[in-house]
Amino acid sequence: MAARVLFFNSNAEDCSSLPNSPMPDPTKVIIVEDNPEYRNVLKMAFEFDDDIVLIGTYGSAEHALRALEPKSKNITRPDALLLDLNLPEMSGLEAMKWFREYLPDTPIIVLTQSESESDVLTAIQQGATGYLLKSATVQQIKDGIQTVVSGGALLDTKVAQYIMNQIQSAPAKGDSQTNLSIRELEVLELLAEGLVKKEIAAKLGISFFTVSTHIRHVYDKLNVLNAPAAISTAYQTGILPVKKK
Length: 245
Description:
By secondary structure, the protein is an alpha/beta fold. 44% of the residues lie in helices and 14% in strands. It folds into two domains: 5-9 and 27-165, Response regulator (Rossmann fold), CATH 3.40.50.2300; 171-236, Winged helix-like DNA-binding domain superfamily/Winged helix DNA-binding domain (Arc Repressor Mutant, subunit A, Orthogonal Bundle). It has helices at residues 36-47, 61-68, 92-102, 117-125, 138-149, 157-169, 182-192, 197-204, 208-222, 227-236; strands spanning 5-8, 27-32, 52-58, 80-83, 108-112, 130-133, 153-156. Helix 2 (61-68) packs parallel to helix 3, helix 7 crosses helix 9 (208-222) and helix 8 packs across helix 9 (208-222). The chain starts with a strand and ends in a 9-residue tail after the last helix.
């Protein structure tokens, strides 16, 4: 059975209603995956997609990092990075901090067989924008790429369920150290409800850019890098109450 995927599109705006909108450039993607068969499956799938262009495939983190070093002036920077965790030599988790340094604005989607609880939490804490299991379909992977490029995040449903179980079993630690303002807390609550920035702006009667500023401040104060990590941290620390069924 194919995996289901949860998409958290916290940043994207709906541009479908804009008149005469120019066609966007294809999304540039790099794959770091040591399994040649799986790598070729993705490569063939992307070759027939006008919205995605594969600009690099690497069998190890070391090869990818050498190609993406800041001194490599001729390299085309990707819009998204698909990263396996179980790699030879340097693992995906070990390499993630370097990818974050070399490509600070590029969302990273972990694409792995690992359902390890520690891998999930470590990847999210280190800044992974998405976590998909390899049971995901090619279309789910493509949709996930476009989601993170638009500013959203995604989690495989098994991963999301694990995080919720952790949240519900963890004792509340209180929110005395967060220093979130009332408005930032309101924005965080709406993020946790699944609202996107445009919807939050409309609900609170503020601008889209003001919402973006509040979200950035929330990330800074919670010391997280993305929406899933912010929501998880908020529940685990008691900033947001867990709703019992």
